[in-house]
Specification:
The protein has 306 residues and is mostly beta strands. It has a single domain (11-296), classed as monomeric porin ompg (Porin), CATH 2.40.160. The protein has three helices and 15 strands. It has a twelve-stranded antiparallel β-barrel with strand order 3-4-5-7-8-9-10-11-12-13-14-15. β5 (90-102) and β6 (109-112) form a beta hairpin. The longest helix has 10 residues, at 11-20.
Length: 306
């Protein structure tokens, strides 16, 4: 369960934090936590997928983002997230980030961000049309992180997640059937004033092309490893400020990249390209490693509690 929303007081500081926080063999014998019909939705890096599962994710990000004076500072982030199934359709999550900010104007800081707790429930799945939808609630618990990095106030983020594969297109459009889209939308509501912690609206989309789906459901092109297990992805995590001096301003990135999946987990790499000067002028990079506990330990650690 990822969040697209601002984590730091002050709009300029919120931007880098929002950016930085941010092999499944697809065959008849493979499984994963976000499967509907013949479609697998991978765990994308910045826009959460519509599935629930037992999993562990770790990520490294680097980008140059504007400080309060508009100058570029290096922001490095190492994050973790653990999701635990309570029931088959309900999961609990805990996550945080270790952030290092190197500001040329003397505002350098490092430390843990606040802990984020979440719940997510799969409400609908349609195998014939490769569609899934979930709802969730995330809360960043104010004051649980380093004072130099984390907010003193808390945030609450109710979110809707969805995913749609295009496997139901007619056969004559076969090479379009491996495409899929996923997205998430929801408000980021803070317990602070609009001056210190403005509310925002987070929204994000992904466009995916599954080479495993192409091979197994459209035409076997005989692609060798590692290409036969690749997903080509473009993510667009965005946040629009809804209160305070920044009201109406949108920040975010376009993240083209690739994901390699097998039965037990995945690796991913994406570029981060700022969409405007408010977000920054320098591209960044994200690296991700993701483990499917429900496939690695189906009868123990990855088993639902109930």
């Amino acid at each position: 369960m990822r969040t697209l929303f601002t984590r730091r007081a002050g709009f300029a500081h919120a931007v880098p934090m929002a950016i930085a926080a941010v092999s499944l063999a697809v065959s008849s014998g493979a499984s994963a936590h976000a499967v509907v019909g013949d479609r697998v939705f991978p765990a994308t890096l910045t826009v959460d997928d519509p599935g629930v599962g037992d999993e562990f994710d770790t990520q490294f990000g680097h980008i140059k983002a504007p400080d309060d004076d508009g100058d570029a500072m290096n922001v490095n982030t190492v994050s973790y997230e653990w999701d635990k199934l309570i029931t088959q359709n309900l999961a609990f999550s805990i996550a945080s980030d270790y952030v290092s900010q190197n500001d040329p104007n003397g505002g350098s800081a490092k430390g843990w961000d606040n802990i984020t707790l979440g719940v997510k429930y799969l409400v609908y799945a349609n195998a014939a049309h490769e569609f899934m939808a979930s709802v969730g609630l995330e809360s960043e618990v104010g004051g649980t992180g380093s004072k130099s990095i984390a907010n003193a106030f808390s945030t609450f983020t109710p979110t809707v997640y969805f995913g749609k594969g295009f496997g139901d297109l007619p056969p004559q459009l076969g090479y379009l059937r491996p495409f899929a889209i996923t997205g998430e939308i929801g408000p980021n509501l803070t317990t602070a004033s609009s001056e210190t912690g403005p509310n925002s609206f987070g929204w994000g989309l992904t466009l995916q092309y599954s080479l495993p789906y192409l091979q197994s459901q459209v035409k076997d092109l005989g692609l060798p490893q590692p290409f036969s297990n690749l997903f080509l992805v473009v993510e667009a995590p965005m946040s629009t400020c809804t209160a305070g001096a920044c009201a109406g301003q949108t920040t975010g990135t376009l993240n083209p990249g690739v994901l390699w999946l097998n039965r037990y987990g995945q690796f991913g790499v994406e570029a981060q390209i700022p969409v405007n000067r408010l977000t920054g002028e320098h591209p960044g990079v994200l690296f991700d490693a993701h483990l499917y506990f429900d496939d690695i330990f189906p009868n123990s650690l990855g088993k639902p509690l109930f």
